[in-house]
Write a structure and sequence with these properties.
This protein is an all-alpha fold and 107 residues long. The chain is built from three helices and no strands.
Length: 107
């Protein structure tokens, strides 16, 4: 019973602080929310146009390690992890059969 008044006080505090924080957020100055503004007013994209991934003169192919479009590591890792998960599941079922159900048939 000692915890009930503390719980009631905490809930009342939360319900009084939530509207106050929402009201404070509404009255905040909108100018403080601006992160960046372009000076020249140009709405075009910043930087060069992206090149095709397999294009010979694309610098991103050599800089980011996309030289060969071979099978990615994650594809092989998915099979390895699937096998490990199924082997773990088989072990858990085997231990359940040995420990809980017992080989002699008694439960």
């Amino acid at each position: 019973m000692r915890r009930l008044p503390a719980l009631v006080v905490m809930v009342a505090l939360v319900f009084t602080l939530l509207p106050l924080t929402a009201a404070a957020a509404e009255t905040a100055d909108d100018a403080s929310m601006i992160l960046a503004v372009e000076e020249d007013g140009d709405d075009g994209p910043v930087g060069p146009n992206p090149a095709a991934r397999l294009d010979e003169d694309n610098a991103a192919t050599t800089l980011s390690g996309y030289e060969s479009p071979d099978v990615p590591f994650t594809w092989g890792a998915a099979w390895i992890l699937s096998f490990a998960g199924l082997a773990g599941l088989a072990l858990m079922v085997g231990f359940y059969m040995l420990v809980v159900r017992r080989p002699d048939g008694s439960s």
